[in-house]
Amino acid sequence: xxxxxxxxxxxxxxxxxxxxxxxxxxxxxxxxxxxxxxxxxxxxxxxxxxxxxxxxxxxxxxxxxxxxxxxxxxxxxxxxxxxxxxxxxxxxxxxxxxxxxxxxxxxxxxxxxxxxxxxxxxxxxxxxxxxxxxxxxxxxxxxxxxxxxxxxxxxxxxxxxxxxxxxxxxxxxxxxxxxxxxxxxxxxxxxxxxxxxxxxxxxxxxxxxxxxxxxxxxxxxxxxxxxxxxxxxxxxxxxxxxxxxxxxxxxxxxxxxxxxxxxxxxxxxxxxxxxxxxxxxxxxxxxxxxxxxxxxxxxxxxxxxxxxxxxxxxxxxxxxxxxxxxxxxxxxxxxxxxxxxxxxxxxxxxxxxxxxxxxxxxxxxxxxxxxxxxxxxxxxxxxxxxxxxxxxxxxxxxxxxxxxxxxxxxxxxxxxxxxxxx
Length: 422
Description:
Layout: H1 3-24, E1 26-28, H2 29-36, H3 40-52, E2 56-61, E3 73-77, E4 83-90, E5 93-100, E6 105-112, H4 119-137, E7 144-151, E8 154-156, E9 161-164, E10 173-174, H5 175-180, E11 187-191, H6 192-203, E12 212-220, E13 223-232, E14 235-237, H7 254-258, H8 283-291, H9 295-319, E15 323-327, H10 335-348, H11 351-355, E16 358-361, H12 368-379, H13 391-394, H14 397-409
Parallel strand pairs: 4-7, 7-11, 12-15, 15-16
Antiparallel strand pairs: 1-3, 2-3, 4-5, 5-6, 8-9, 9-10, 12-13, 13-14
Helix pairs in contact: 1-14, 2-3, 6-12, 8-9, 9-10
């Protein structure tokens, strides 16, 4: 076997073991041997190398099986081995998160910013935010494995060009190139709905889903938009020109929507406080009111969710996904959003389509986009390399190992084909 093939085999084996440890949290070396089909000596050497790099931790010996025998050694990820940054770029706001190596949030912040007109101004804002969140969390830059930045609009994730967006007046903005000038660690730029879909697939509610559709809804005063992220056969689908999910569906901002309920505010249990000052109502006020049982706020979101359900029902009919994920701030409302969306889809689609569709809300809420952007960075360290070039050398042995790992740990073990950090 050629040296290049040996290196690829080792890389695949390393990723398989690392993925199993990540998904299981704690796993024994004997179980790693059983699941992967690798030799005990191979597993031993892989774990030894990973421990030397501080990627995994030996937790000592576990309990013997019912049949007795030697107590197996237990292993887990070293969550402090590395950290991934994610930034969600919105008009007037940047949201940042830091994920540890085990995909747990260790820091998150929302930054209100002045309107920016140029790429340099945006990059300067991002630099300040990255510095602040790293300083506040006490994480050294040397332990950061990458930065993911997500933007609404059409984004060429291969080149890092923001082709079209409401964030900039210009087209074909070289955001990746500009960010890479300031950071020594890898950087990616991705569409915001795609990033949210990645986060739900990698560390969220869609981990076991094979074909999922994420609907990211962003609206406030002066902010309105709805994007769609698609995972097809466990891989992110962007389309031939990175426009998949960019439907340009009309969605009013909050100020326009409130005109329909302006005269009813006084009948609310919470919103009545804003009857004299309706311009003080923002999305956060409306969500909190609905969560506290305000009938006007609940009716408002019921109508909005039904509208959204009708708008996306044709896409549901065409794609027939097994899961629909409502992402963004509205995800906090759970059934208040899920039920009217489902009702609209049931009216507009065949029963066989709606009955097999599971409608859920993202577990990450407002941070879903930033979480997803950071997940892309993190996922690149667990992604299994392409094994097609090894088929002539090793037959299907590697493919069988991958299949065993997937079966044992779930479909979310092997990350979909997400953008490669550069």
